[in-house]
């Protein structure tokens, strides 16, 4: 499967409501995972908040979203990123190297607690990017 390019939306505590709304609008399959399910010590106040949500629609749209993690201030203008994801490690690493060159890395591209390799950066033009290299499924 080719890498996916899609919006990743950040919400101020209402990601579940927003993602369920987008499911009503576009249809499709919605998967939601909370901070509590994923672990990582986000704290009890975040246990029911959405760490990662993904809506895949019959028309081929993919929308991802989450509640802002602890320590990340929510503000209009920083409530989105462009997400690149897939299993093509060499391709995605090449994109990461080019996007992060001359930009600012906020999360280094490395293995995360959910098992995938993930990183976040803002390119030299101020566009926020998330790159997730999925662990191949058996």
Automatic annotation (TrEMBL):
<dbReference type="InterPro" id="IPR029068">
    <property type="entry name" value="Glyas_Bleomycin-R_OHBP_Dase"/>
</dbReference>
<dbReference type="Pfam" id="PF06983">
    <property type="entry name" value="3-dmu-9_3-mt"/>
</dbReference>
<protein>
    <recommendedName>
        <fullName>PhnB-like domain-containing protein</fullName>
    </recommendedName>
</protein>
<dbReference type="InterPro" id="IPR028973">
    <property type="entry name" value="PhnB-like"/>
</dbReference>
<feature type="domain" description="PhnB-like">
    <location>
        <begin position="7"/>
        <end position="131"/>
    </location>
</feature>
């Amino acid at each position: 499967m080719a890498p996916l390019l899609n919006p990743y939306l950040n919400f101020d505590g209402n990601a579940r409501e927003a993602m369920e709304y987008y499911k009503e609008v576009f249809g499709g399959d919605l998967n939601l995972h909370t901070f509590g399910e994923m672990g990582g010590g986000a704290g009890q106040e975040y246990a029911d908040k959405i760490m990662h949500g993904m809506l895949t629609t019959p028309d081929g749209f993919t929308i991802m979203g989450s509640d802002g993690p602890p320590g990340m201030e929510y503000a209009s203008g920083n409530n989105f990123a462009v997400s690149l994801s897939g299993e093509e490690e060499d391709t995605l690493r090449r994109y990461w190297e080019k996007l992060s060159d001359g930009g600012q890395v906020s999360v280094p591209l490395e293995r995360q607690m959910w098992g995938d390799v993930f990183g976040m950066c803002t390119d030299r033009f101020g566009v926020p990017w998330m790159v997730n290299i999925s662990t191949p499924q058996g």
